[in-house]
Every structure is written in C-alpha cells, then in structure tokens.
Amino acid sequence: MDNLNYIDKIVKSKLENYSVPVKTKTKDIFKNTSKKVLNKATKYVLYSSLTVAVSVAGLLSIDVISIAPKQAIAAKNYKFSIDNVCKVDKKVLSNITEPEQNIHNIPENKDNGKDIVVIEIEKTEIDTVKR
Amino acid sequence: MKNEDFEIEKLKNCERKAFDKLFRKYAGIVKAIAYRYVKDWEKADDIVQETFIIIYKKIEQYEGRGSFEGWLKRIAVNTALKHIKEEQKNRKEDVENYQLTEEKEEEVNEEDMKSLIESVDFSKDEILEVVMNLPKGFRTVFCLYVLDNFRHKEIAEQLGISESTSKTQLLRARKLLQKRLFILAKEKHKVKKVNFLKQVIGKRNG
Predict the structure, then answer these.
(1) Per-residue pLDDT tens digits for A83-119
(2) If you measure CA to CA, which chain B residue comes closest to A55?
(3) What global pTM score does this model have?
(4) Distance from CA of A56 to the nearest CA of B (A)
C-alpha cells in the first residue's frame, strides 16, 4: 500500500486547506436575532432553506409551531423581517406542525420560494427580538 | 496569550464581531469540507450554517487542548456525515454497497504511472473533480482518512462498517485515483505536446 501513498500526498497538498467562496454571512445565520436572544439560546430561527430551518430547529430543540404565511404575518407584527415569506405546501406544513415526527423526513420543497420562517410563537420572548 | 486564544475568549463571551471574524476565516474551508462528502453545493451551504450554529453553541466546551482549527473541522466533518447518514437512511443505502465500476484497464507498470502522475502539476479543481468522481463509499472513506485525519476505527464507527472494509475502501479509492490521475496526466501531456508543436509550426510559418 505504501507505493500508493504518493496519491494521498498529491490530493492532500491540493485539497487539505481548499476553500470556496461562501455567500452566506453571519447575519444570515442569526438573522434578525438580537444578541440578547443569542446569548440566551437562539430561540428564533429565520432561514433561507427548509432543510436548514428544520434541522436547526431540531438542533436547538425548538418546537416548530408554524411555517405558514398566516403565522408569518403574526411574525411581522412582532418585527421579524419577512420579505420573502413563501407559501408552503400543505403536505409539508402538516408534517411540520408535528415537530416530534421524524423531523428529517420532511421533504424539501424548493419551489416554494426563498425564505421560510420558523417561529416559536411565545409573545414574551418574541418581544425581546429586535429588528 | 496567543491571538487565536484571545478571539476564542471573545467567542465564549458571545461577541458577535469575533463570530463574524471566525466565519470569514473558516466558512470557505468548512464549505469545501462539506462538499467533499455531500457533493452538492447547496447542501454544503446548509452544512456551513449548521456547523457554525454548533460551534456557537459548543464553544464553551472547547478547552484549548487541540488546535481550534482541528476542532472546528471535526465538527464540520461530523455535521456532513450526519447529513449523508440521513440520506442513506432515507434511501436505504449503505456505504458498503458502492461497488467499483469496472473500467477497461490497460496494462501499465505502477512505476510508470507514478512517474507520469508526479510529473504533472494538477490544479486544485482537477484534483477535486477526480476525487469527487470516486464512488461515494470510496470517496467518503478516502476523504475521512487522508484529508480529515480519521483513523480506520473512527471511520468504521462513523459509517457503521468494519475496520477491514474501511481499509479495503481506502485501498480501492487510491487505486482508482491513481488510474484516473494517470489518464488525466496522459491527456495533459498530449495537450502540452500539441501546443508545443503549434508553437513550433507558428514560428516557422511566421
């Protein structure tokens, strides 16, 4: 096997610290989430991809109560930025309203638009989030 | 106190600027790592976000024993592996199921292959393409072992395969890489020759 180690060296020399451009910025990661909330536990997540939104919600143990335009309006009232809130397929929505169901089996629906809102609606805490 | 330690303290204090700086420094590397495993730039972007969320949440757990970069990369790899495991679960795939597609082989001496491959300066993109075109199981094991410094025992645990399977996959990955790099090296030499001849003819005619 030693005679193939040179392959490892060639690949390693080119790819070990390979870096590619990233469009996302940190402000997108914790979009519209105030430092105060971040310091607490990142309770609210606004994400540009359903996969990330759902998995992050799972990661942070957030109950995903809603991903729907109706709730997005509620979010707007609480000063969330919802420029690109989209319509969500009913099937997807019915899955998401049961967050304890196998969260990773929720299908990604890219046709729905750009932004998805994941919100845990709890007035007192939403009030702490600044625009 | 080293500069990086200072930044880590700032991260532990939840200072947003420190986090921005960390993201700017490492996001591209994390994305490249993620891509090696998921072979999808969009998913790689998702993994970048998840990785930094995890780092943000777990920064308190970093005790400074190993290098911070190593710790961060390990989180990126684990996050990417989580993604491919979920995909495998959904598609009922198994890393062991990836078989090497038979390709017609010409008999070439190993030493000849080595000397030709080593004579060529491949670009990063060429190497990436060759690695990414490996069968998924080979690629995963190869990247974990060679690029992300996992041991066979760890690979076996992560992928749910035996250590001997991990070793076999690695060997096959290396052999296939060698073969494909050899083909690429031959093509590059051919192009080089043609360009040289064009130059000579051009000079004569000009």
Answers:
(1) 333 333 333 434 433 333 333 333 333 333 333 334 3
(2) B50
(3) 0.65
(4) 7
Phi, psi of B111 (to 5 degrees): -65, -35
- Cβ separation A7–B174 shorter than 8 A: yes
The string of DSSP letters for B13-73 reads TT-HHHHHHHHHHHHHHHHHHHHHHH--HHHHHHHHHHHHHHHHHHGGG--SSS-HHHHHH
* Domains, chain B, ordered by start: 3-91 (1.10.1740.10), 100-205 (1.10.10.10)
Instruction: Write the residue in A4, A6, A25 that is nearest to B175 by C-beta.
Output: A4
Q: What is the mean pLDDT of chain B?
A: 84
Cβ-nearest to A15 among B16, B19, B128: B128
Q: Is B110 on the interface with A (CB under 8 A)?
A: yes
- Per DSSP, helices labelled H in chain A are 5-15, 26-29, 35-40, 50-59, 69-77, 90-96, 123-126
